[in-house]
Amino acid sequence: MSRNDELAYASRGYKFVTWLIGVWPLEDGRVFSNIRFAVVVMLLVSTISCLGLEILTNCGNSSEILEYIGLISGTTAGLTKVLFVKLHRSDLASIVYSAIKDWSYVEKGSRKEAMLKYARRAYTVGRFHFYFDMLIVITIIMDTLPSSDSVRSTSNGTFIEELKFRETPLRTNCLFVNASTPIYWLVFSWQSLQLFNVVLCDAGNDVFFFCMAMHLCGQFEVLKILYSEVAETTKDETSRKERLRELVGKHSRLLELAARLERTFNVILLVMLGNNALHICLLGVQVLVVLKMNEPITLMKCLIACALVLGQLFLYSYAGENLSSLSEEVGRVAYGFPWYELSSKISRNLLYVMMRANAPFRLTAGRFYTVNIESFKEVLKASFSYFSVLRLVFDE
């Protein structure tokens, strides 16, 4: 595999999606990129407006209203991601340029293998997350396609009418119940586009973040390998001094890039955590309602939605945990360096590395809540506790 092929492999998990929605960092200021971005934002805002109007009509049952609120929450998260990724495009461009440089100059051996390991992980997880969300959207759209024989019985005073029942992908049936057939198909196509747009913005930016985070993890792994190589192969003090200076500079650059990534996504993570908490609460209520109504298909939809919410949170938690642990391990590798063979002036550089590693990188939501595997466990515990209490309330 050539270097260009390796770079294409590492970037194809996110480049096309971010380009499509107009937030690819290397296209800053281009007219067509801004046009695509404006169309994407318009679609997201129209989705939120349509669902909000459906709630205001107050013609759906409790389960449908909970679905509308959940969709509004997910669309709001997608809108937040698009806006903040576009706002912090210069920070993300620095990471992308650094990734291009890293793949262009890496040599064969353990360093390339470390980078490829994290690139494969990012590609596999990203593809699964994105395609699974797309599959859910396609299933929703296919489920709402009207059949020629579909009818619904509705009560109207003292008699029953048989009406043609045509659903739309967003289930906003009250707004378009009297629409003509051409208008109905126009609305159906528009709402299908809206759903695909929500997935592109929400899951697409998740994949973009995960790929960037995994690349930084790969570079921290490379840094550990470089420290070991210097300790084992470089014996001349002058050469060691120059190599250590390069490694300290690389460590500082990696921490700066990780800080840029955190600066871009900390508000996004805060909004996402709020949305996920709301989703879990709504899904808990919906599951209990569906269990009483004995609707297994709707129950399955709720469980899949819950899995999507928790899977998205785990994606960020896993990335935060890896970045934190690898940045901390750099200090341990520096501690194992044969500093006693160096002069006091040179060994002081290692001391600075160890001191900096004692305060490892932390991925945060809103700069106050650390996002890692431990926080993911806390969310799971809180979710199960909430569901247990809610079930007792419903039973009473």
Automatic annotation (TrEMBL):
Q: Where in the cell is it found?
A: Cell membrane
Q: Which residues form a coiled coil?
A: none
| Gene Ontology annotations for the cellular component aspect, listed alphabetically | plasma membrane
Q: Report the membrane topology from the UniProt record.
A: Multi-pass membrane protein
Please provide the Gene Ontology terms (biological process) for this protein.
signal transduction
In terms of one coarse class, where is the protein primarily found?
membrane
GO MF, one example:
olfactory receptor activity
In Swiss-Prot or TrEMBL terms, this protein is called Odorant receptor
Q: Which residues cross the membrane?
A: 35-53, 65-84, 128-145, 267-291, 297-319
Task: Name the protein family.
Answer: Belongs to the insect chemoreceptor superfamily. Heteromeric odorant receptor channel (TC 1.A.69) family.
Report keywords, A-Z.
Cell membrane, Membrane, Olfaction, Receptor, Sensory transduction, Transducer, Transmembrane, Transmembrane helix
